[in-house]
Amino acid sequence: QSALTQPASVSGSPGQSITISCTGTSSDVGTYNYVSWYRQHPGKAPKLMIYDVSNRPSGSSNRFSGSKSGNTASLTISGLQAEDEADYYCSSYIGSSTPHVVFGGGTKLTVL
Amino acid sequence: QLVQSGAEVKKPGESLKISCKGSGYSFTNYWIGWVRQMPGKGLEWMGVIYPGDSDTRYSPSFQGQVTISADKSISTAYLQWSSLKASDTAMYYCALCGSGYSYFDYWGQGTLVTVSP
Questions:
Q1: Per-residue three-class SS string for chain B
Q2: Over the stretch A77-100, which tens digit does the pLDDT of each residue have?
Q3: Residue B22 near chain A (CB below 8 Å)
Q4: How close B77 gets to chain A, by Cα (Å)?
Q5: What percentage of chain B reaches a pLDDT higher than 70?
Q6: Site from B34, B58, B94, B102 to mutate, A interface, most A CB atoms within 10 angstroms
Q7: Is A87 helix (H, G, I), strand (E, B) or coil?
Q8: Which of A35, A106, A108, B105 has its CA 20 to 30 A from that of A21?
Q9: Residue A23 CB neighbours (<10 A)
Q10: DSSP alpha helices (H): ranges in A2-71?
């Protein structure tokens, strides 16, 4: 069982906007601004899309944005494109007696 | 750039060490880690190492199950098993961390490990 909870699937039509949620606890998402989002196409390595809740890596599309409220972080993709169809994973730092990072279970985005 | 060693096929009980060679950056100044992806499943954070001083962090789920190490003289990180199980069959990615070790900035191509009798 993943420490971070994501919806199993979301879908949207080209040009629309979608949001993927990532729910954690006060030990991770709720306390630390260390939430990241990754996109993974089938058979490929993951790619960083958002780090530290809302920062985009250099060269990344501004159609991707991140936010956080309480124990839930969100990834919003605007202007959906066919290439956005992929699996998306959130991750968060966990501050515990053994600090580490945990991924969410992943969300399959289908572009209709 | 991170270049991982090739696919491996092993039997249960055997040992294994896979590698990840970094280039194009200061290997000793950034955390580097490992992520497991079992067939058809999601990503799992295993642990990271800071090659500068070999400081290591493990996920509680993987602590004691694997060993992460690094040889800074050849800019290479390793993931090691002493006794493989069938359940270790997975794709293993190495990845370079950004600031601290809270996220992975760059990823290797992955190493497929198959454990079968």
A1: CEEECCCEEECCCCCEEEEEEECCCCHHHCCEEEEEECCCCCEEEEEEEECCCCEEEECCCCECCEEEEEEHHHCEEEEEECCCCHHHCEEEEEEEECCCCCCEEEECCCEEEEECC
A2: 999 999 999 999 999 999 888 899
A3: no
A4: 18
A5: 100
A6: B102
A7: strand
A8: B105
A9: 18
A10: none
Give the pLDDT of residue B32: 97
Mark out the alpha helices in chain A (DSSP H runs): none
What does the pLDDT look like over B44-64, one tens digit per residue? 999 999 999 999 999 999 999
- β-bridge pairing B111-115 and B8-10: parallel
User: Nearest-CA distance from A78 to chain B in Å?
Assistant: 22
A9-12/A107-111 β-pairing: parallel
Residue % of chain B over a pLDDT of 90: 97
Residue A97 vs residue A23, higher pLDDT: A23
DSSP of A40-57: E-TTS--EEEEBTTTBPP
| Mean pLDDT of chain A, nearest integer | 95
Q: Give the angle B84-A99-A92 at the CA atoms, nearest 5°.
A: 95
The number of beta carbons lying within 10 Å of the beta carbon of residue B85 is 11
Q: Kindly state the tokens that stand for A88.
A: 């998306």
Q: What 3-state DSSP class applies to A112?
A: coil
Residue B102 is nearest to which of A36, A47, A104, comparing CB atoms? A36
Per-residue pLDDT band for A22 (boundaries 50, 70, 90) equals very high
